[in-house]
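Hi L.,

As promised, Transcriptional regulator, MerR family:
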Amino acid sequence: MSEPSKTPEQTTFYTTAELAREAGVTRRTVMHYAELQLLTPDLTTVSGRLLYGPYSLRLLRDLIDLRSLGMPLEEARDMVTLRRATHDLAGNRRRDWKREDVPLSDERLQALQTRLRAINAAYERQADNLARLDRWLTKRFTGEG
């Protein structure tokens, strides 16, 4: 197993296979998301090898989560576009970003906000349901609660 590549600044970069392994998905999944421009490499070596930075790993994990929550690919792409426009390679929020840095229309941003609010509301409902179920199971099997 190879170690992720490092630049002189000691930023970790992952190959496609390493990124997939770190995220717990197949290499083909990473390649598919790259083909759909959901993920874009941060560097390309002289030999043509694609390298992804640490924030790409976070974005990939977020994509996997958003897809499992039912977000369509187009909205997931908008989410990644927004996050890439407002964050640096390491994933830190850029304080200097401007609205014109985000290549999405206000309508697309509004649709994204609507979807995120719906997902968040569903998450909150399920969190309450899961907490009730956990309390019931704890009481059932331990007699506590």
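The first strand starts at residue 5 and ends at 6.

Thanks again for sending the construct details.

K.
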